[in-house]
Amino acid sequence: MMKGASARLNRSPRALRLAAALCILCALATASGCSPRQQSAASAPLAEGSFNEAVSAYQSGDCRASILRFNAALARGEHPAFLNGLGMAYLECNQPQNAVRAFERAIAVAPGSAALHANAGTALYAASDYDGAEKQFTTALRLDPANPEAIVGKAGLFIEKKQPEKALQTLSQLAGTDAAAPEVLYNKALALYQMGLLDDAGSGIAAYARAHPDDAEAQNALGVVMLHQKDYASAKAHLDRAIALRPEQGNYYYNRANILKEQKQFREAVEDYGRAIAFTPDMAAAYVNRGDVRFLLRDTENACADLKKACDLGQCDRLEKYEEAGRCRDFF
């Protein structure tokens, strides 16, 4: 990788959301398995037809239809299964705050459900309320010390705090099929990535990406690993896929620009750094690397302007080195 280029990997942990959702929905419907220890008498009767329609929409990936059907069912009265399903549908539709409210309503009806607390923790994590998420995961583990989603969530919090060793230790509590779940392997890979073990992280990310081919973050992560391994063609293919799935993510363009830079496709790299900056204007590294590439294209004035902007954002090393070499002084 050329000096100054550094890949960016979004470190959003993956929880076992689908498995937990189906478990809690079915269990609350039958008052068994992971259902509350004592279902509240205030729970409304479960309307099986509405329940099945809402779950079917969720399973088919139509989160909006699922939200509508769960809300229609809830018009008849509060039931934890419907509220949990509504929360899961909101999560799938990237509405974490609405999901939090749905799970909190479910917990008010069924406070003894570890799965509901774990799902609430996942929603709070998605909403960047890490303190709230930790409280919910802790409650879930007090109710059920082996709850896999709460364990994954706790590990995610350690990853967020940049404590990868603790994350790996937490994930080691999982056993059997839970330990082999792609989501768990992904979180282990994130921890390994933070430890600088990119090659070791690659297999876990690849396993998750195979199970979830439409997850843009996984495609981005694989691209980062392939870039580190200098497999530029594969890296670009994964970044192309990530961008196609989520074209608004500035760091994807940044990573693809780094690949193009390594391939000496400098003009294309400048364009992608520009896209990264458009979506993420405070990304100092994108200005640094675009400045480097513009120097290679003999576009000195714009190159120096990029390095000055990076310095304004707190990253001055590159500009200082160019100034020490007698460059950029005439433009400021």
Report on the architecture of this protein.
The chain is mainly α and 332 residues long. The protein is 70% helix and 0% strand. The protein has 19 helices and no strands. The chain has helices spanning 17-30, 48-59, 63-74, 80-92, 96-109, 114-126, 130-143, 148-160, 164-171, 176-179, 182-194, 198-211, 216-228, 232-245, 250-262, 266-279, 284-296, 300-312, 317-324. Helix 6 packs antiparallel against helix 7 and helix 8 runs antiparallel to helix 9. It starts with 16 loop residues before the first helix and ends in an 8-residue tail after the last helix. 50% of the residues are buried. TPR repeats lie at residues 80-113, 114-147, 216-249, 250-283. InterPro entries: TPR-like_helical_dom_sf (IPR011990), TPR_rpt (IPR019734), Ycf3 (IPR050498). Residues 1-31 form the signal peptide. Keywords: Repeat, Signal, TPR repeat. It comes from Candidatus Bilophila faecipullorum.
